[in-house]
Amino acid sequence: MKLTCYQVDPQPAELVPGSPDRDWMDKFSDRHPYRCLPLVVANTTGWALISPVSFTATWNGGPRTEDIRLDPDDDTPVALMNRWAVSHFSGGVLTFHTGYLFRTDPGWDLWVGGPPNHVKDGIQPLTGVVETYWLPFPFTMNWRFTRPGMISFKKGEPFCFIMPIPHEQMDEVQPIIKSIHEDPELKRQYDAWGESRTNFLTRLDQKDAEAIKNGWQRDYFRGRTPEGHVAPDSHINRRRLKPPRKAEPGE
Amino acid sequence: MDEFTDRHAYRCLPLTIANCTGWEILTPAAFSASWNGGPALSDVTFESEGDVHKHFAASMFARGVVTFNTGYLFRTESGWDTWVGGAPNWIKHGIQPLTGIVETSWLPQAFTMNWRFTAPGTVRFEQGEPFCMIMPVPHAAIDACTPVIKALSDDPALEAETKEWMKSRSEFVARVRAGDPEAAGQVWQRTYFAGKTLRGEAAVGDHIHKRRLAPPRAAGEDDV
After folding, report:
1. Which of A188, A201, B7, B133 has its CA 20 to 30 A from that of A15?
2. Which residues of A touch B102 (CB under 8 A)?
3. What burial class does residue B185 get, using C-beta atoms within 10 Å of its C-beta: 0-12 exposed, 13-18 middle, 19+ buried?
C-alpha cells in the first residue's frame, strides 16, 4: 500500500508515525494504561500531523465565522498562525490546513480524525473518510468546540491523524448475532479467560506474593490465552509505522 | 450538523461517510456520570433510574474513566482487527471516547468501551445514544506502508488538476460572497459529492456518496 504526500505548501506540517505516548496515560501510577494494548496499538496505527504553531481559539457560541477568534501564543507570528488555523466553516468549527495533498492506492481511502486517546477539554476532532485515491484536492482537518470558551493548541501537538482504510470492503460485511452457547469451544475459552482473571484479582487482593510481583496478567499482550492457546503469528504488541521519506528522483 | 442553516454540514461528504462507516452500539438506558477529579475508582459516581446503569456502565479503571460493557464478544475473520471508538462527529462536552484496536480474530474475551472525562464534572448519556462504534480494519496492511513525500510539481498533470480545483473553488467562494445569484443558487460545488472532475466526467467508477451498512441479523442454520 502506497501513501504519497504531495506538498502543496512549501513547508507542510511535520508528519510522523503515531506515538504510543499520551500525557494523561503517563500520570497513572506504573503508567498502567500502557498495559491496555488496544489503546497503545490505536495510538500507533496511523500518522500524526504536528502543529507548527501555538495559539488560543475563543468561541463566543455564535454561528458566524467571526464568532471564533484566534490569538497566537508563545513565539508564533500571527502570519504563520493564519496560514495553518482558520475559522472557515462557522458554527464553532476550527479548521487546520495540513499542507499536503494525500494520495492513496486505488481501493484505499484515508480515515482522518484526531490523534486517538489525545484528551482535550472544550473541543473535539471531527472525523472524515476521504476518497484520496482520486481526489485532486487537499482536505482540511476540522475541530468543533464542545461549548463556548477558550482552547489552546501548542506547537508540537498533533492536530490530525490519518489512517488508510479499505474503500469498499465494509459494505460487504454482514454482522451476525449469535449466542456464545452455540459455539461451545469459544464459550469454554471465554469462561477460562474470565476465571483466570478472577483468580488473579483474588490473589492480588490476598496479597499473594507472586501475583503482586507480576502485577498484571500479560496474556493478551503476549498473544495467548490463559490455557496456552496462542494467537496467530501475526500478533502485534508493538507497532512503529514507517516514517515518511522523501521521494527518490524520478519516483 | 442538523443545526447549520440548510444542514450544510451534510454537504461535507467525508463527515457523513465517516458517520456511516461502522456499527454503533447504543446506550440501553439513560444515566449520568460525575467525576470529582480524583484518582480513585470511587471518584467517578453514577446515577440512573433504579440503578439500571449497573448492568452496563461502571468505574473500573480510575482517574476519570467510565467503562461500558457491550454485551458482545466480537469475532472477525483472520486478518481483520476491530477499531473501537466513539461515534464519529458525535459532539459531547466534558468526556471523550477512548480508541482501541483489538485483535478480534482470535481473542476469546470481550473488550470494554471506555470514555475519559476531559475535566471534572457531570455528563449524561441518553437512552439510544451511541456509546461505541466498531469498524473492521485490516490487521497488518498498514505496517508495510511507507509514506513518500513529493513536491506537487513532480507530477505536473496532478499539479495542473489541483490548481484548477483550487482556482475553481476560490472563484466560486468569491462569487457567493459577492452575492452572484447563480453561484448562490448552486449554493455549493457538488463536484466531490458527485465524484466528478471539473470537466463533469465521473472521476472513478467506485465513488461512494451514500453508505448504509448491513444491519446485524440473527445467525441462521448455515452460519457455522
Report:
1. B133
2. 38
3. exposed
